């Protein structure tokens, strides 16, 4: 695998940038693999990478119906944080943050992880109580989170309006996770793809899975695809908003609903916004990309759909909130918006688990907030597939919890999970 370094860059620059290798191969599928992963988003690619690097399983194919990273991974607003309320979630998301902290070095690929801090604003007494509860719970779990007064929020994020006289939703304070931040979404998919490919994993794009075959004992035997049948001893489904559709191919119903979630960016401007700010109550969040665009996120549409675009009223509502919180952005122009399909569970926590079909595993239900978990999710899902047993971190994230009542109810805890 070609190495990226300052020296390599200088050498290639002097040679007219000739000789860079493609980042990954474009192989034709083999007749069969030990493991087939359905979905080449960040989670699927990370799973393949850790299967190869941690478990030595390299006879793996990642099948993608479009282009790798073209799903929610390439559409998200890249907020990374781990200040979730419940112990199970804190364990999972902080496992991911710890992996993020060394990921560029691990992959030899700059994923531009920037721990610029995620500030969550409180606008009413309920918010204050809820965020203070989060701060205490997080600290007990060894996750950093601190309470800031409104003035301290303003010091941390100078563009923020805290003038209560001008606001429908005054800022009463905020919870700040300094280790939170953002990363470059495409680079995460590309870095994992490159790392997995170098270890022998076949990444096959433009290859939609159209069926899942099971033998007489119920165990999976392979997948039907637009490139023909591919045999597989084990199958990992990591298809985000399409998970229900794919699992239906194996005859399994999932506790998931798929919703459009959208985001938008402004015209690029000079660096002005130093952190990530989220407001769950008025449902808007904002950061600034390294290109200079303000990256703005909204809530999901209220109805289920597989369209990769959201309703206009959601965007205008979000921009109302952004203009109130940051009046200096009122005259900015928005450049483009887009949507993704997010798969939402009843308790807004993911499923990373074995299924009732032997050899079939599923990683889904990340809803509006799975990008932040990409390295941790891939790491524990690879463990689950390789050993046919969950890693202690993902053991609570079963499908059966919806039958047995052991919910991890982040929906009730935070109302939003970006
Ligand atoms: C607008 C928006 C903003 C978001 N903001 C944030 C955020 O700030 N922070 C955060 O943590 N998360 C955020 N998320 C959520 C995050 O993007 C997802 O949880 C995460 O990217 C899911 O990754 P994935 O690899 O599971 O899915 P994806 O990247 O969607 O990958 C799944 C892949 O499966 C493929 N696939 C589906 N069906 C088939 C089939 N039949 N055959 C072959 N391939 C198939 C798809 O084409 C897709 O590429 C946001 C999402 C959206 C849409």
From TrEMBL:
Cofactor(s) the protein needs: FMN; FAD
Keyword NADP found: no
Domain called Rhodanese: residue spans: 35-79
Catalytic activity as recorded in UniProt: sarcosine + (6S)-5,6,7,8-tetrahydrofolate + O2 = (6R)-5,10-methylene-5,6,7,8-tetrahydrofolate + glycine + H2O2; sarcosine + O2 + H2O = formaldehyde + glycine + H2O2
GO cellular component: cytoplasm
InterPro entries (UniProt xref): FAD-dep_OxRdtase, FAD/NAD-bd_sf, Rhodanese-like_dom, SoxB
The keyword Kinase is annotated on this UniProt entry: no
Its EC number(s): 1.5.3.24
Subcellular location: Cytoplasm
Pfam families on file: DAO
Domain of life of the source: Bacteria
Similarity comment: Belongs to the SoxB family.
Protein name: Sarcosine oxidase subunit beta
Species: Methylobrevis albus
Higher taxonomy: Bacteria, Pseudomonadati, Pseudomonadota, Alphaproteobacteria, Hyphomicrobiales
């Amino acid at each position: 695998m070609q190495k990226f370094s300052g020296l390599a860059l200088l050498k290639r620059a002097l040679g007219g940038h000739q000789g860079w290798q493609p980042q990954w191969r474009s192989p034709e599928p083999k007749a069969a693999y030990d493991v087939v992963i359905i979905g080449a988003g960040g989670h699927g690619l990370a799973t393949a990478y850790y299967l190869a690097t941690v478990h030595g399983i390299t006879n793996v194919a990642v099948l993608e119906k479009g282009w790798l990273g073209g799903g929610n991974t390439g559409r998200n607003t890249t907020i990374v944080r781990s200040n979730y309320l419940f112990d199970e979630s804190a364990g999972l998301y902080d496992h991911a943050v710890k992996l993020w902290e060394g990921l560029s070095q691990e992959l030899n690929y700059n994923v531009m992880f920037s721990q610029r801090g995620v500030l969550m604003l409180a606008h009413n007494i309920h918010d204050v109580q809820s965020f203070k509860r989060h701060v205490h719970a997080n600290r007990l779990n060894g996750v950093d989170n601190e309470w800031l007064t409104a003035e301290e929020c303003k010091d941390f994020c100078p563009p923020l309006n805290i003038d209560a006289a001008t606001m429908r939703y005054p800022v009463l304070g905020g919870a700040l996770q300094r280790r939170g931040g953002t990363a470059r979404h495409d680079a995460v998919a590309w870095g994992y793809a490159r790392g997995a490919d170098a270890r022998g994993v076949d990444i096959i794009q433009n290859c939609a899975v159209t069926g899942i075959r099971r033998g007489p004992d119920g165990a999976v035997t392979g997948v039907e695809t637009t490139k023909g049948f591919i045999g597989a001893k084990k199958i990992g489904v990591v298809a985000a908003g399409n998970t229900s559709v794919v699992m239906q191919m194996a005859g399994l119903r999932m506790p998931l609903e798929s919703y459009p979630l959208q985001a938008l960016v402004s015209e690029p401007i000079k660096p002005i916004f130093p952190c990530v700010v989220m407001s769950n109550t008025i449902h808007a969040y904002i950061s600034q990309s390294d290109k200079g665009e303000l990256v703005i996120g909204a809530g999901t549409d209220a109805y289920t759909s597989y369209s990769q675009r959201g309703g206009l009223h959601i965007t205008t509502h979000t921009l109302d909130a952004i203009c109130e919180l940051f009046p200096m952005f009122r005259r900015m122009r928005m450049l483009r918006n887009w949507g993704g399909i997010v798969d939402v569970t009843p308790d807004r926590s993911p499923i990373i688990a074995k299924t009732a079909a032997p050899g079939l595993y599923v990683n889904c239900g990340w809803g509006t907030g799975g990008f932040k978990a990409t390295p941790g999710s891939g790491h524990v899902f690879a463990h689950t597939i390789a050993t046919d047993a969950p890693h202690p971190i993902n053991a609570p994230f079963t499908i059966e919890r919806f039958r047995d009542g052991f919910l991890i109810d982040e929906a009730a805890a935070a109302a939003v999970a970006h």
